[in-house]
Amino acid sequence: MRKILVLDTTLRDGEQVPGAKLNLHEKLTIAHQLRRLNVDILEAGFPSSSKGDFEAVKRIAGEFQDGPVITALARAVQSDIDAVYESIRQAQRPLIHIVLGTSNVHVEKKFNKSKEAILEMGVNAVRYAKSLLPDVQYSTEDASRSDFEYLWQTIEAVVKAGATMVNIPDTVGYAVPEEFGELISKINYRLKNVNDKVILSVHCHNDTGLATANTLIAVKYGADKIECTINGIGERAGNAALEEVAVGMKLRPEYYNAYTGITTKEIKATSKLVSNLMGLDVQVNKAVTGENAFAHSAGIHQDGLLKSRESYEIIRPEDVGVEEMELVLTARSGRHAFKAAAVQFIQENLADDEFEVLFAMFLELADAKKEIYIHDIYCLVNDYYTKKG
Ligand code: KIV
Ligand code: ZN
After folding, report:
1. Which pLDDT value is given to residue 295?
2. What pTM was estimated for this model as a whole?
3. Which end of the chain lies in a sparser environment, N or C, as judged by fewer CB atoms within 10 Å?
4. pLDDT, position 347
Protein backbone atom coordinates (compact mmCIF):
# COMPACT_ATOMS: atom_id res chain seq x y z
CA MET A 1 0.00 0.00 0.00
CA ARG A 2 1.24 3.46 -0.89
CA LYS A 3 1.41 6.29 1.62
CA ILE A 4 -0.14 9.40 0.07
CA LEU A 5 1.37 12.72 1.10
CA VAL A 6 -1.13 15.37 2.16
CA LEU A 7 -0.43 19.05 1.53
CA ASP A 8 -2.78 21.36 3.36
CA THR A 9 -3.33 24.73 1.70
CA THR A 10 -5.92 26.19 4.10
CA LEU A 11 -3.55 29.05 4.90
CA ARG A 12 -2.90 29.84 1.20
CA ASP A 13 -5.71 28.77 -1.17
CA GLY A 14 -8.19 28.69 1.74
CA GLU A 15 -7.29 32.11 2.99
CA GLN A 16 -8.02 33.61 -0.44
CA VAL A 17 -11.75 33.35 0.39
CA PRO A 18 -13.23 36.86 0.70
CA GLY A 19 -13.73 37.84 4.34
CA ALA A 20 -11.66 34.94 5.68
CA LYS A 21 -8.45 36.87 6.35
CA LEU A 22 -6.52 35.77 9.41
CA ASN A 23 -4.11 37.68 11.62
CA LEU A 24 -0.69 36.32 12.52
CA HIS A 25 -1.79 34.76 15.80
CA GLU A 26 -4.75 33.03 14.11
CA LYS A 27 -2.51 31.66 11.33
CA LEU A 28 -0.10 30.26 13.90
CA THR A 29 -2.94 28.67 15.85
CA ILE A 30 -4.22 26.93 12.72
CA ALA A 31 -0.70 25.88 11.71
CA HIS A 32 -0.18 24.20 15.09
CA GLN A 33 -3.51 22.39 14.78
CA LEU A 34 -2.53 21.23 11.26
CA ARG A 35 0.60 19.78 12.78
CA ARG A 36 -1.55 17.86 15.31
CA LEU A 37 -3.61 16.63 12.35
CA ASN A 38 -0.28 15.34 10.99
CA VAL A 39 -0.34 16.88 7.51
CA ASP A 40 2.85 16.11 5.59
CA ILE A 41 3.24 19.52 3.96
CA LEU A 42 1.85 22.83 5.13
CA GLU A 43 1.44 25.61 2.58
CA ALA A 44 1.71 28.66 4.79
CA GLY A 45 0.93 31.46 2.33
CA PHE A 46 1.89 33.53 -0.69
CA PRO A 47 4.72 35.71 0.65
CA SER A 48 4.98 38.14 -2.27
CA SER A 49 1.27 39.04 -1.96
CA SER A 50 1.74 41.21 1.15
CA LYS A 51 4.16 42.04 3.93
CA GLY A 52 1.74 40.45 6.41
CA ASP A 53 1.73 37.18 4.48
CA PHE A 54 5.52 37.21 4.22
CA GLU A 55 5.84 37.70 8.00
CA ALA A 56 3.28 35.00 8.78
CA VAL A 57 5.04 32.43 6.56
CA LYS A 58 8.39 33.36 8.11
CA ARG A 59 7.04 32.97 11.63
CA ILE A 60 5.46 29.58 10.88
CA ALA A 61 8.66 28.36 9.20
CA GLY A 62 10.70 29.52 12.23
CA GLU A 63 8.45 27.66 14.68
CA PHE A 64 8.27 24.38 12.76
CA GLN A 65 11.62 22.79 13.36
CA ASP A 66 9.97 19.39 13.30
CA GLY A 67 6.69 18.23 11.82
CA PRO A 68 5.50 19.09 8.33
CA VAL A 69 7.49 20.34 5.38
CA ILE A 70 6.82 24.07 5.03
CA THR A 71 6.08 25.56 1.64
CA ALA A 72 4.79 28.82 0.16
CA LEU A 73 3.71 29.88 -3.30
CA ALA A 74 5.66 31.82 -5.92
CA ARG A 75 4.82 32.82 -9.48
CA ALA A 76 7.56 31.89 -11.95
CA VAL A 77 9.49 35.10 -11.38
CA GLN A 78 12.68 35.69 -9.45
CA SER A 79 11.24 38.23 -6.99
CA ASP A 80 8.46 35.84 -5.90
CA ILE A 81 10.91 32.95 -5.54
CA ASP A 82 13.20 35.17 -3.46
CA ALA A 83 10.27 36.08 -1.19
CA VAL A 84 9.40 32.42 -0.70
CA TYR A 85 13.01 31.49 -0.04
CA GLU A 86 13.50 34.28 2.50
CA SER A 87 10.31 33.38 4.32
CA ILE A 88 10.76 29.59 4.54
CA ARG A 89 14.53 29.15 4.72
CA GLN A 90 14.42 28.77 8.56
CA ALA A 91 12.20 25.71 8.32
CA GLN A 92 13.78 22.35 8.85
CA ARG A 93 12.36 21.07 5.57
CA PRO A 94 11.51 23.97 3.24
CA LEU A 95 9.95 23.52 -0.21
CA ILE A 96 9.55 26.20 -2.90
CA HIS A 97 6.25 26.01 -4.80
CA ILE A 98 6.18 27.59 -8.27
CA VAL A 99 3.04 28.03 -10.35
CA LEU A 100 2.68 28.80 -14.06
CA GLY A 101 -0.21 28.06 -16.43
CA THR A 102 -0.10 25.53 -19.25
CA SER A 103 -3.56 25.87 -20.84
CA ASN A 104 -3.98 27.85 -24.06
CA VAL A 105 -6.13 30.39 -22.27
CA HIS A 106 -3.41 31.01 -19.67
CA VAL A 107 -0.55 31.08 -22.15
CA GLU A 108 -2.26 33.21 -24.80
CA LYS A 109 -4.81 35.31 -22.92
CA LYS A 110 -3.38 35.69 -19.42
CA PHE A 111 0.29 36.02 -20.43
CA ASN A 112 -0.01 36.95 -24.09
CA LYS A 113 3.11 34.87 -24.80
CA SER A 114 4.05 31.90 -26.91
CA LYS A 115 4.11 28.38 -25.48
CA GLU A 116 7.88 28.28 -25.95
CA ALA A 117 8.34 31.50 -23.96
CA ILE A 118 6.18 30.21 -21.09
CA LEU A 119 8.07 26.92 -21.05
CA GLU A 120 11.38 28.76 -20.86
CA MET A 121 10.06 30.96 -18.06
CA GLY A 122 9.04 27.85 -16.08
CA VAL A 123 12.37 26.08 -16.60
CA ASN A 124 14.34 29.20 -15.61
CA ALA A 125 12.21 29.59 -12.49
CA VAL A 126 12.88 25.97 -11.45
CA ARG A 127 16.63 26.35 -12.10
CA TYR A 128 16.70 29.50 -10.01
CA ALA A 129 14.70 27.91 -7.16
CA LYS A 130 17.02 24.86 -7.26
CA SER A 131 20.00 27.14 -6.80
CA LEU A 132 18.44 28.12 -3.44
CA LEU A 133 16.89 24.91 -2.12
CA PRO A 134 16.87 21.21 -3.04
CA ASP A 135 13.06 20.75 -2.97
CA VAL A 136 10.95 22.47 -5.60
CA GLN A 137 7.34 21.83 -6.60
CA TYR A 138 6.09 22.97 -10.01
CA SER A 139 2.35 23.48 -10.57
CA THR A 140 1.07 23.41 -14.14
CA GLU A 141 -1.87 25.72 -13.49
CA ASP A 142 -5.09 24.82 -15.34
CA ALA A 143 -3.56 21.47 -16.29
CA SER A 144 -6.93 19.79 -16.83
CA ARG A 145 -7.76 22.24 -19.66
CA SER A 146 -4.30 22.04 -21.23
CA ASP A 147 -3.26 20.43 -24.46
CA PHE A 148 -1.79 17.11 -23.25
CA GLU A 149 1.42 17.11 -25.31
CA TYR A 150 2.28 20.66 -24.20
CA LEU A 151 1.47 19.75 -20.60
CA TRP A 152 3.77 16.74 -20.84
CA GLN A 153 6.51 18.77 -22.56
CA THR A 154 6.36 21.20 -19.62
CA ILE A 155 6.45 18.44 -17.01
CA GLU A 156 9.42 16.75 -18.67
CA ALA A 157 11.32 20.03 -18.98
CA VAL A 158 10.78 21.17 -15.37
CA VAL A 159 11.69 17.73 -14.03
CA LYS A 160 14.91 17.80 -16.07
CA ALA A 161 15.55 21.29 -14.63
CA GLY A 162 15.30 19.79 -11.12
CA ALA A 163 11.67 19.95 -9.94
CA THR A 164 11.15 17.28 -7.27
CA MET A 165 7.34 17.45 -7.25
CA VAL A 166 4.97 18.05 -10.13
CA ASN A 167 1.49 19.23 -9.26
CA ILE A 168 -1.44 18.81 -11.66
CA PRO A 169 -4.13 21.34 -10.72
CA ASP A 170 -7.73 21.22 -11.83
CA THR A 171 -7.73 24.96 -11.27
CA VAL A 172 -11.32 25.71 -12.27
CA GLY A 173 -12.94 22.39 -11.34
CA TYR A 174 -13.35 21.40 -15.00
CA ALA A 175 -12.21 17.79 -14.72
CA VAL A 176 -14.49 14.76 -14.41
CA PRO A 177 -13.27 11.72 -12.47
CA GLU A 178 -12.82 9.17 -15.24
CA GLU A 179 -11.01 11.62 -17.52
CA PHE A 180 -8.89 13.02 -14.66
CA GLY A 181 -7.93 9.49 -13.60
CA GLU A 182 -6.78 8.75 -17.15
CA LEU A 183 -4.77 11.98 -17.27
CA ILE A 184 -2.97 11.12 -14.03
CA SER A 185 -2.35 7.57 -15.20
CA LYS A 186 -0.80 8.80 -18.47
CA ILE A 187 1.42 11.34 -16.71
CA ASN A 188 2.41 8.80 -14.07
CA TYR A 189 3.44 6.26 -16.72
CA ARG A 190 5.61 8.74 -18.61
CA LEU A 191 7.05 10.33 -15.47
CA LYS A 192 8.30 6.98 -14.17
CA ASN A 193 10.43 6.69 -17.32
CA VAL A 194 11.96 10.14 -16.86
CA ASN A 195 12.56 10.14 -13.10
CA ASP A 196 10.78 7.75 -10.77
CA LYS A 197 11.74 9.76 -7.67
CA VAL A 198 9.60 12.74 -8.68
CA ILE A 199 6.39 13.07 -6.67
CA LEU A 200 3.20 13.37 -8.70
CA SER A 201 0.59 15.57 -7.02
CA VAL A 202 -2.97 16.78 -7.66
CA HIS A 203 -4.86 19.90 -6.62
CA CYS A 204 -8.60 19.89 -7.35
CA HIS A 205 -11.18 22.65 -7.13
CA ASN A 206 -14.85 22.07 -6.46
CA ASP A 207 -16.75 24.15 -9.00
CA THR A 208 -19.01 21.26 -9.96
CA GLY A 209 -18.77 19.43 -6.64
CA LEU A 210 -16.21 16.89 -7.92
CA ALA A 211 -13.05 17.92 -6.06
CA THR A 212 -13.11 14.98 -3.64
CA ALA A 213 -13.99 12.48 -6.37
CA ASN A 214 -11.28 13.81 -8.69
CA THR A 215 -8.68 13.72 -5.91
CA LEU A 216 -9.55 10.15 -4.94
CA ILE A 217 -9.56 8.86 -8.52
CA ALA A 218 -6.16 10.51 -8.99
CA VAL A 219 -4.86 8.56 -5.98
CA LYS A 220 -6.19 5.35 -7.48
CA TYR A 221 -4.47 6.13 -10.77
CA GLY A 222 -1.06 6.92 -9.34
CA ALA A 223 -0.92 10.32 -7.62
CA ASP A 224 1.55 10.27 -4.72
CA LYS A 225 0.39 13.49 -3.13
CA ILE A 226 -2.86 15.42 -2.76
CA GLU A 227 -3.56 19.07 -1.98
CA CYS A 228 -6.59 19.94 0.15
CA THR A 229 -8.08 22.42 2.59
CA ILE A 230 -10.01 22.01 5.82
CA ASN A 231 -13.78 22.08 5.25
CA GLY A 232 -12.98 22.38 1.53
CA ILE A 233 -12.66 26.16 1.75
CA GLY A 234 -10.89 27.98 -1.08
CA GLU A 235 -11.34 30.05 -4.22
CA ARG A 236 -14.96 30.15 -5.45
CA ALA A 237 -16.57 26.76 -4.59
CA GLY A 238 -13.40 25.75 -2.78
CA ASN A 239 -10.83 22.96 -2.86
CA ALA A 240 -10.93 19.24 -2.16
CA ALA A 241 -11.85 18.85 1.52
CA LEU A 242 -9.01 17.20 3.42
CA GLU A 243 -11.37 15.42 5.81
CA GLU A 244 -13.40 13.87 2.98
CA VAL A 245 -10.39 12.58 1.08
CA ALA A 246 -8.63 11.28 4.20
CA VAL A 247 -11.76 9.51 5.48
CA GLY A 248 -12.50 8.17 1.99
CA MET A 249 -9.11 6.47 1.93
CA LYS A 250 -9.38 5.29 5.53
CA LEU A 251 -12.71 3.66 4.78
CA ARG A 252 -11.66 1.88 1.56
CA PRO A 253 -7.85 1.48 1.70
CA GLU A 254 -7.94 -1.70 -0.40
CA TYR A 255 -9.86 0.10 -3.16
CA TYR A 256 -7.35 2.94 -3.41
CA ASN A 257 -4.41 0.77 -2.39
CA ALA A 258 -3.35 3.78 -0.37
CA TYR A 259 -3.51 5.45 3.02
CA THR A 260 -2.60 8.82 4.53
CA GLY A 261 -0.83 9.69 7.78
CA ILE A 262 -3.68 11.99 8.87
CA THR A 263 -4.65 11.68 12.55
CA THR A 264 -8.35 11.54 11.83
CA LYS A 265 -9.32 12.02 15.50
CA GLU A 266 -8.15 15.64 15.09
CA ILE A 267 -10.51 16.32 12.16
CA LYS A 268 -13.48 17.75 14.04
CA ALA A 269 -11.32 20.02 16.22
CA THR A 270 -9.47 21.31 13.15
CA SER A 271 -12.70 21.91 11.29
CA LYS A 272 -14.20 23.89 14.18
CA LEU A 273 -11.05 25.95 14.65
CA VAL A 274 -10.83 26.91 10.96
CA SER A 275 -14.54 27.68 10.79
CA ASN A 276 -14.45 29.85 13.93
CA LEU A 277 -11.27 31.77 13.13
CA MET A 278 -12.20 32.38 9.48
CA GLY A 279 -15.85 33.10 10.23
CA LEU A 280 -16.97 30.53 7.64
CA ASP A 281 -19.85 28.30 8.72
CA VAL A 282 -19.68 24.64 7.79
CA GLN A 283 -22.69 23.48 5.76
CA VAL A 284 -24.83 21.41 8.18
CA ASN A 285 -24.95 18.36 5.90
CA LYS A 286 -21.27 18.63 4.88
CA ALA A 287 -19.65 15.18 4.72
CA VAL A 288 -17.57 14.31 7.80
CA THR A 289 -17.49 17.77 9.44
CA GLY A 290 -21.09 19.04 9.10
CA GLU A 291 -23.26 19.33 12.20
CA ASN A 292 -25.61 16.62 10.87
CA ALA A 293 -22.92 14.28 9.55
CA PHE A 294 -23.54 11.86 12.42
CA ALA A 295 -27.09 12.80 13.41
CA HIS A 296 -29.63 10.13 12.59
CA SER A 297 -33.24 11.26 12.58
CA ALA A 298 -35.36 8.77 10.63
CA GLY A 299 -37.15 6.32 12.92
CA ILE A 300 -36.17 3.20 10.99
CA HIS A 301 -32.54 4.32 10.90
CA GLN A 302 -32.51 4.97 14.64
CA ASP A 303 -34.05 1.59 15.31
CA GLY A 304 -31.41 -0.09 13.11
CA LEU A 305 -28.58 1.83 14.76
CA LEU A 306 -29.68 0.86 18.22
CA LYS A 307 -29.52 -2.79 17.17
CA SER A 308 -26.20 -2.45 15.36
CA ARG A 309 -24.22 0.71 14.64
CA GLU A 310 -23.01 -0.81 11.38
CA SER A 311 -26.51 -0.74 9.91
CA TYR A 312 -26.37 2.97 9.08
CA GLU A 313 -22.97 4.16 10.25
CA ILE A 314 -19.96 3.67 7.97
CA ILE A 315 -17.74 6.23 9.69
CA ARG A 316 -17.36 5.95 13.45
CA PRO A 317 -17.88 9.48 14.81
CA GLU A 318 -15.19 8.99 17.45
CA ASP A 319 -12.65 8.21 14.68
CA VAL A 320 -12.98 11.78 13.38
CA GLY A 321 -13.12 13.39 16.81
CA VAL A 322 -16.90 13.66 17.15
CA GLU A 323 -17.72 12.80 20.75
CA GLU A 324 -20.83 10.71 20.12
CA MET A 325 -23.36 10.17 17.38
CA GLU A 326 -26.41 12.27 18.01
CA LEU A 327 -29.86 10.83 17.56
CA VAL A 328 -32.18 13.68 16.67
CA LEU A 329 -35.59 12.32 17.59
CA THR A 330 -38.81 13.23 15.81
CA ALA A 331 -42.43 12.18 16.23
CA ARG A 332 -41.62 9.31 13.85
CA SER A 333 -38.70 7.95 15.88
CA GLY A 334 -40.78 5.38 17.72
CA ARG A 335 -40.88 3.97 21.28
CA HIS A 336 -37.63 2.06 21.02
CA ALA A 337 -35.50 5.06 20.06
CA PHE A 338 -37.20 7.25 22.65
CA LYS A 339 -36.65 4.69 25.40
CA ALA A 340 -32.97 4.27 24.48
CA ALA A 341 -32.42 8.03 24.69
CA ALA A 342 -34.48 8.55 27.87
CA VAL A 343 -33.29 5.54 29.85
CA GLN A 344 -30.42 7.43 31.45
CA PHE A 345 -32.88 9.88 33.08
CA ILE A 346 -35.64 7.42 34.01
CA GLN A 347 -35.90 5.91 37.50
CA GLU A 348 -35.53 2.14 37.55
CA ASN A 349 -39.02 1.25 38.69
CA LEU A 350 -40.94 2.98 35.87
CA ALA A 351 -43.98 0.84 35.07
CA ASP A 352 -45.11 0.18 31.50
CA ASP A 353 -48.21 2.39 31.80
CA GLU A 354 -46.04 5.20 33.21
CA PHE A 355 -43.68 4.87 30.25
CA GLU A 356 -46.72 5.23 27.95
CA VAL A 357 -47.56 8.57 29.64
CA LEU A 358 -43.99 9.71 29.12
CA PHE A 359 -44.05 8.59 25.51
CA ALA A 360 -47.30 10.50 24.91
CA MET A 361 -45.64 13.62 26.36
CA PHE A 362 -42.72 13.03 24.00
CA LEU A 363 -45.03 12.78 20.96
CA GLU A 364 -46.77 16.00 21.95
CA LEU A 365 -43.45 17.82 22.27
CA ALA A 366 -42.12 16.30 19.04
CA ASP A 367 -45.23 17.48 17.17
CA ALA A 368 -44.73 21.00 18.44
CA LYS A 369 -40.94 21.23 18.23
CA LYS A 370 -40.26 18.86 15.28
CA GLU A 371 -36.73 17.94 16.41
CA ILE A 372 -35.96 16.63 19.88
CA TYR A 373 -32.42 16.68 21.24
CA ILE A 374 -31.02 14.93 24.30
CA HIS A 375 -31.43 18.03 26.51
CA ASP A 376 -35.15 18.16 25.53
CA ILE A 377 -35.56 14.59 26.72
CA TYR A 378 -33.87 15.40 30.00
CA CYS A 379 -36.34 18.30 30.55
CA LEU A 380 -39.28 16.13 29.53
CA VAL A 381 -38.46 13.36 31.99
CA ASN A 382 -37.82 15.94 34.72
CA ASP A 383 -41.18 17.50 33.99
CA TYR A 384 -42.86 14.10 34.19
CA TYR A 385 -41.44 13.36 37.65
CA THR A 386 -42.24 16.86 38.92
CA LYS A 387 -45.90 16.50 37.84
CA LYS A 388 -46.05 13.00 39.31
CA GLY A 389 -44.81 14.41 42.62
O1 KIV B 1 -5.75 26.21 -8.26
C2 KIV B 1 -4.56 26.27 -8.60
O3 KIV B 1 -4.17 26.03 -9.75
C4 KIV B 1 -3.61 26.65 -7.56
C5 KIV B 1 -2.15 26.45 -7.86
C6 KIV B 1 -1.33 27.52 -7.24
C7 KIV B 1 -1.72 25.10 -7.41
O8 KIV B 1 -4.00 27.01 -6.48
ZN1 ZN C 1 -6.03 26.28 -6.11
Report:
1. 83
2. 0.87
3. C
4. 82
Local confidence band at 325 (pLDDT 50, 70, 90 cut-offs): low
* Average pLDDT of the segment spanning 218-226: 98
Nearest to 245 by CA among 198, 213, 199, 206: 213
Pairing status of strand 41-43 against strand 2-8 = parallel
Which residue type, as a one-letter code, is found at position 262? I
Name the closest-CA residue to atom 4, ligand 1.
Answer: 171
CA distance 129 to 207: 32
* Cα distance between residue 109 and residue 112, in whole Å: 5
- Pocket, ligand 1, Cβ cutoff 6 A: 13, 73, 99, 139, 141, 167, 169, 171, 203, 205
Residue 199, beta-bridge partner list? 165
φ/ψ (deg, to 5) at 345: -105, -10
Mutating to test ligand 1, I would choose from 96, 141, 154, 168 the residue with most ligand atoms within 8 A of its C-beta, which is: 141
Q: Which atom of ligand 1 is nearest to the CA of 143?
A: 3
